[in-house]
Amino acid sequence: MKKLFFIIILLFFTASILGSNYNIRRTDNFSSDEEMFHNRWTNSMRGDSLNCTVVGRTLFGASHNVFIKDTIAYSCHGFSLLIINISDPNNPILIGFYDMGDWAYGVYVKDTIAYVANGDDGLRLINVSNPTSPTEIGHYDTGGYARGVYVKDTIAYVADCDDGLRLIDISDPANLTEIGFYDTGDLAFGVYVKDTIAYVADNWAGLRLINVSDPTNPTEIGHYDTGGYARGVYVKDTIAYVADYGDGLRLINISDPTNPTEIGHYDTGGYARGVYVKDTIAYVADYGAGLRLINVSDPSNPTEIGFYDTGGYAEGVYVKDTIEYVANGDAGLRLINVSDPTSPTEIGFYDTGDWAEGVYVKDTIAYVADEDDGLRLINVSNPTSPTEIGFYDTGDLAFGVYVKDTIAYVADCSDGLRLINVANPTSPTEIGFYDTGGYAQGVYVQDSIAYVADYNDGLRLINVSDPTSPTEIGFYDTGSYAYDVYVKDTVAYVADYNDGLRLINVSNPTSPTEIGFYDTGDEAWGVYVKDTIAYVADGGDGLRLINVANPTSPTEIGFYDTGGEAWGVYVKDTIVYVADGGDGLYIIHYYGNTGIKENKNKNSSNVYNISVKMQDGLRIDYSIERTKNISINIYNIIGQKLYCNNDIKSPGQYSVRWNGNTGVYFVKIDIDKYRYTKKVIIIK
Predict the structure, then answer these.
(1) What's this model's pTM, rounded to 2 decimal places?
(2) Distant-in-sequence, close-in-space partners of 271: CB < 8 Å, separation ≥ 6
(3) Strand order across the beta sheet in which 365-369 lies
(4) What is the pLDDT of residue 515?
């Protein structure tokens, strides 16, 4: 979490900025580290998407809770509900997910509904009858901060943090109502119900046993102090299994509910948040250490038998050929095969030692900016077995890296720009240095100029024609905190935290001037420019696509809410790879266009009477009143054009048929300056 500590320190005297940009629910229920992380990630969300769709996901976020039904584990990670096949407990496989919008903390599955404790968003009911495509069917705002849930008969018992235990009638999933309530005393994080007793994990107050035989009037009958911070609980036979943040898994004998006693313990390695028990295995959601599978056949001696790493914190991303290289925080460098972007798979991993912030790949070497550990050079010629071949300690915190020819340019926080000779990658050496004055975060090199995003010191232009003696030739104050920069032709595009996307004319590098600006809405962390689109990683607002064909008047043409906090972005062909710090890797297809007015809401009753039907494959009907230029294109989910029909049509009615296979497709119809776009699903 070094990046977060760094941000907190630098913004210590700017509380007003934080206050105006965050919509969070502050409580006293977290330790200092967790409180900082919680506040950093619970900012308001943008919404859904425009002209964008997710085609793949991997390296999901932090682990909070888990529920097992048959051979499927429903796990709360970051802002998502993950659905994992555990038929082979030694080899768990992800098969589905649902973006919850806020932190997914607790889950219980009954019949075909997953009941999710969803933080500020209360209780969410998700239909999981098709686990590969879950959908929401009901919602209840519990009033507090929903952290845990258990369902018995027609009642959902919600652990609602400082609002205690809430009893919700779910007999009609579309019309939920509260029927009872009990103040547990501290912060209710988890709940399990057996017979007429609700077992509540109540933070530092430990395990509370609540009699709910009369759900309109619950009362406490027993209590056990677990020693740490009780966050999750599961009851099987006469044992309560408690996920105890900091103290791991605690096994409590509750045969006498008025006098519970501990009989076993297992340290899960991180911070145990949630637990589920099936047969003789306890599945523990361990914040920071993933999903742990613990054998509890002997409750006095639990042992670990399996593990699923849910990933670290995706910070930076670079794509080369069919491999996505992810700088994944404390989880190091991850290599993801994206040859099929709808099914990304990890093929390699290297622990860089500290906190991987940025990555650049050239030839067969991945150059990783690894904060305190400086620049790491990783040989990726065999992507299934990456190995370190070189290292250079840059002195401060390496945040960004760009490689040109035989020089690696490192944005090294308070140490500025470091120029590292990597001609011999086994022995990198520093050949030049320039103190940028602020806190260097990102760097881009074009021709003989290094453009440095220098945090509160804006954009610095450094002449590196003589790499042994770099000198500043230009400077522009971007207004806020410059985090990243991308240069195309004579424009530098700066991701400027509070101030969004700044377009700086650098045709005269000694006198850069701003020519355009777009307020992206949240916190611009990263930027990548391709053709006439600037792709901005915009924190809690996800991915923003800005048309910069006219740099003096940039306009938004698409967006996708990534669920957590978008930090890094890379674009290849029609696919956008977004590193989302709290919610892993998103692979997004942009199916819009620039320069053409689009109206997705037009239907068969408007303009050209366009109708798209799934009838014997795909049927497109349309009519025109005057001679027009017509273009009809059909793309698959990864952006490949499968059908193209360009022609000049006379007035009349027309029908086009296309016999595609089962799958998801995008139809784009251009009639002069009018565009119609539709996503279709063909099932045969």
Answers:
(1) 0.55
(2) 245, 246, 286, 287, 288, 289
(3) 358-362, 365-369, 375-379, 387-392
(4) 95
